[in-house]
Model the fold of this input.
Amino acid sequence: MQSRLTLFYRLAAAALIALALASCAATEPQRYAQEKPALDLKRYFNGVIEGHGMVLDRSGEVTRRFVVTINASWQGDTGTLDEDFEWSDGVKEKRVWTLKPGAVPGQWVGTAADVIGQAAGTVAGNALNWRYTLAYKTAEGKTWNIGFDDWMFLIDERVMLNRAVMSFWGLRVGEVLISFTRK
Done:
């Protein structure tokens, strides 16, 4: 029994070290600071934007597809992204984001009804990185707090590509891929 516990503790310690090393290796937005075209959130997220996307599970299998229409507007430095989702299974959802500049240039704060606390965003060059926790409601009525490491890359004045990695308790559970087009 003692040897099994020792093995368990060694495996647990190795897993914690691997997680710590993986978190240290995360890409930082400043890596894209020189990339063009430069992303201006107030300019890109203004008017109607349409997105086509899909959700993949941790093995890479597509589990759902969607179309999202975003009506984006600004009042001074406060932006509103009014998102209407139509999912491939017929479900319709709405999320309304409020965006405000952070304390440091290039940083942004976002809130939405199903986001726990605030989303922390950083713009550098053509990239935006959001990190937040979403209170995801399952079909069974349970709520799971899913972490998002959300990257958006401006390709040109009309197109932005988005890849969000989802995690639960620090473990990768899937990702969301979206192609946005300004209308």
Q: What stands out?
A: The chain is about 15% helix and 55% strand. Residues 91 and 146 are 20 Å apart (CA to CA). Residues 18-24 have pLDDT under 50 and may be disordered.
